[in-house]
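Q: What would this complex look like in 3D?
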Amino acid sequence: MPAERDADRLFDVTLAQDDIAFWEDDAGDRQSLVDLINRVLDRGVVITGDVTISVAGVDLVYLGLSAVLTSVATARERMDRNAGPDRRSVSPPRDG
Amino acid sequence: VLHGYCIRGRGDPEPDAVVEGLGGGGILRIEEGDLVLWCSELDARPAVTIDHLKAHDNVVRAALRVATPLPLRFGTAFDDEAAARAMLRERSEEFGAALERVAGRVEMGIRVSAAEGFEAVPEPRSEPRPKARSGREFLEIRRRELDAAASMKAAAGAALDRVESGLVDLALPSHREILPREGVLGLVAHLVHRGDLGLYRQRVAALRDDLPELVLVPSGPWAPYSFV
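A: Here is my prediction, written as structure tokens for the whole assembly.
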């Protein structure tokens, strides 16, 4: 595969800084986390059978990977709201 | 366990700077055939936290700066090096073809939200459901919620149509996801050649003027998460 040049230029931005706000500003812009979480948690190469991730100790196999799109914080809030003594009884957050 | 970040071609250049993985450790390179897996050795599978997701993407991003990798979904782990090598061997043809497909390209995203004047506005997810005083009232509330959700989904789909059609002449591979929640209508992603990023940004900026009822927030470049 040929080397790709101008690596530094790749990350230049030509639009206003606000428009290229990644998750660095997560304290002020929770929605920008959607872009990160949607990609890192719900896309990318899947190695079948090897994806086992957990939120607050609960494996996401119980929640459904695609369900955790809004934000991990939201998922955690829901889990905290819904979880009884046995956290594995958490209901999966569903799409609207 | 070995936490995987991305798959690269063996001939891809190495970043100039040292790349730090989850837990602050270095990145292991497991080479098998024409492929290289970037991973970190961790005591246990990492929990999903914002910091971990950022750290994962930072490693993928470091690879992206010098050559487009195939990003692995967060949470991909291997018991040991032998398991990782076996995976690379078994899927070498598929990964090789994918690396060729994305070479020289990056993913650009457009988050689409409703501006003032949009026909429907997604309800905040945190809004509590009104309490029903009877079973019938519960069903009515539920029916209204489902109708509103269907209507919102249709409006979000139409909004994404407008965004995609505004860039259709660029003939880019695209991916879309309707995501009517938290004020977001959806996400559109394009696979853009690195040399065309300036043009792409110009077109997105122009599209924002053409679609005042929508808020378009570009992001990227990303590794091609949506195209692998």
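A: To summarize the key features: The longest helix of chain B spans residues 135-166. The helical segments of chain B are 50-66, 81-90, 92-102, 135-166, 197-210.
Q: Very helpful, thank you.
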